[in-house]
Amino acid sequence: MSIGTGTADTALAAARRRLEPVFERIAATALEHETSGTRPHAETATLAAAGFGALRIPVADGGAGLGVEEFFELLVDLAAADSNQPQIWRNHIAFVEDRLAGRTDRDGEWRRRIGAGAVIGGAWSELGTTSILGDTRIERVDGRLLLNGVKYYSTGSIYADWVGVLALAEDGAARLVLVDARADGVDLVDDWNGFGQRATGSGTTRLRDVLVAEEHVLDFTDRFVSQEAVYQLVLLAALAGIARTVRDEAVQAVTARSRSYPHGLSERPRDDAQVQQVIGRIAAHAFVAEAAVGRAARVLDSVWEEIGAGGEPTVAARAAAIAVYEAQIGVTDAALAASTLVFDALGSSGVGRPLALDRHWRNARTITSHNPRIYKERVIGDVRLNAADPLSIYTVPSADSTAANTEASA
């Protein structure tokens, strides 16, 4: 569903023309960031300036008004340039969907902020706790609202203007507290130590007596009904982008080779039927991954169509959850397989550090570890066999909740 004026195709074409040069610049520096350990601050800022963060914001609020399917098509393109980028924007993307679903004045204010270029990070999870809320609190002290706590998996926050912090209020309810990323008492630490997706900024956020404005405190329960599906689909878009880039780099590497193995089937590797078979399999994995993301995005779009028609979105949200979960299994398998198969098409030069082809498997493995597929496989089986409700596997967190999705913002 396109939000705003004009057709979805027209809006998508305009957005693509504006963003393609930015994506090309991101792709040109991604390998350097990977090998040097530097962070894509300039590239992320350029994306924001080009309106990437406002693609789903209505035209009336300063955005491009893209629908879900169109947006995720561009997100896969971005992931092909640098798989870190979709994850950097993941909390922002989910926050936008929540504000689109909201009907309050505060929701409108945040839509307009984002339409003007604001970028939102996130800080939900805490290490060593069974509850997603953990020990982070927002309390009134001498008439002022103060936020205190320590969060981890603060993905994208080092690049953001605002950080959405999940905290427990004095009334025991969950609140999403928006704090200026540069405010006094906010310490964003880039200490994520995973072996993949190393530029996502998924590290620690320390909050010490951070002064919070009343209007920047939102009810955590006021969220888009398919928020979790959005979070997961962003990761799947990143995996689809990885599979596409593996395909392209495999083709480039094989084409550049002039020497074959003594027991090869041709003098040139590109003419070797076995090598061709490997490239064919990689290409098929890339196709399947992108197709699955596109299909899941279309089903997710139907939730917005139901909302736009004034209907009850629960049935559509269940269908979207199932579609995303099933896509997760297929896309996970495809990305991991493609990023391993690439080495079968190459000689020992394929493991050279300058190529850094190992980054694709490391990044794919890191992404797939965020929400392990084994749990979604079980959920899908329960849904198909017993008509279980796929929306019931997550609950709204409270102080003693142990069933919340603690990896939503990772």
Short description:
The chain has 410 residues and is an alpha+beta fold. The chain is built from eleven helices and eight strands.
Explain how this protein is built.
The protein is of the alpha+beta class. The chain folds into three domains: 8-118, Butyryl-Coa Dehydrogenase, subunit A, domain 1, CATH 1.10.540.10; 120-224 and 394-410, Butyryl-CoA Dehydrogenase, subunit A, domain 2, CATH 2.40.110.10; 227-371, Butyryl-CoA Dehydrogenase, subunit A, domain 3 (Up-down Bundle). Helices cover 49% and strands 11% of the residues. It has helices at 8-36, 41-49, 68-81, 84-88, 90-101, 105-115, 227-256, 273-308, 314-341, 358-370, 373-386, and strands spanning 120-123, 137-141, 144-151, 162-168, 174-180, 186-189, 204-212, 217-219. The strands form two sheets. A four-stranded mixed beta sheet has the order 1-4-5-8, covered by helices on one side. Strands 2-3-7-6 form a four-stranded antiparallel beta sheet, with no helix packed on it. Helix 3 crosses helix 7 and helix 7 runs parallel beside helix 9. Mean pLDDT is 92; it is low at 1-6 and 395-409. InterPro entries: Acyl-CoA_dehydrogenase (IPR050741), Acyl-CoA_DH_C (IPR013107), Acyl-CoA_Oxase/DH_mid-dom_sf (IPR046373), AcylCo_DH-like_C (IPR036250), AcylCoA_DH/ox_N_sf (IPR037069), AcylCoA_DH/oxidase_NM_dom_sf (IPR009100). This is Acyl-CoA dehydrogenase C-terminal domain-containing protein.
